[in-house]
Amino acid sequence: MGEMKKLRSRMAELEGKMRELQRELARSSAGGFRAMRESRRCPACGSGYLLHIPAATELGRRGPTPLSVHHEAGFWGATSKGPIEHFICRGCKLIESHAIDLDGITADGETVIAIDPEPEHPPSGGPFR
Fold this sequence. Notes:
By secondary structure, this protein is an alpha+beta fold. About 25% of the residues lie in helices and about 30% in strands. It contains 2 helices and 6 strands; from the N terminus they run ααββββββ. It has helices at about 1-30, 35-40; strands spanning about 50-55, 55-60, 65, 70-75, 75-90, 95-100. Strands 1, 4, 5 and 6 form a 4-stranded antiparallel beta sheet that branches. A two-stranded antiparallel ribbon has the order 2-3. The longest helix is centred in the N-terminal third of the chain and has 28 residues, at about 1-30. The radius of gyration is 24 Å and the shape is flat.
């Protein structure tokens, strides 16, 4: 009888772990990809050892300048718009970059192209109905 009790205990433990894994799977697959910024985990290797660069810079002619999404040339030089932050996995070295804001960036169809989502349903007209 002691063996049966051990088996039931082990089964209850495994069922608890399975429920925990199901909850974790539901959290990670809701919406598909989970960014390092929110999850604090690397989506490629699962590591939690990350680096955060909150104000990424690049080397310009006059020294470090903020890394940004877009630059616009002007009379007095270029202006940077859309500063970038990085999250880097210390395990597999995956880099995830995020625009901190998009203030002042407008789509011009050439250097900045807006992509809108596809319609949810196909058009009702056409050859296939």
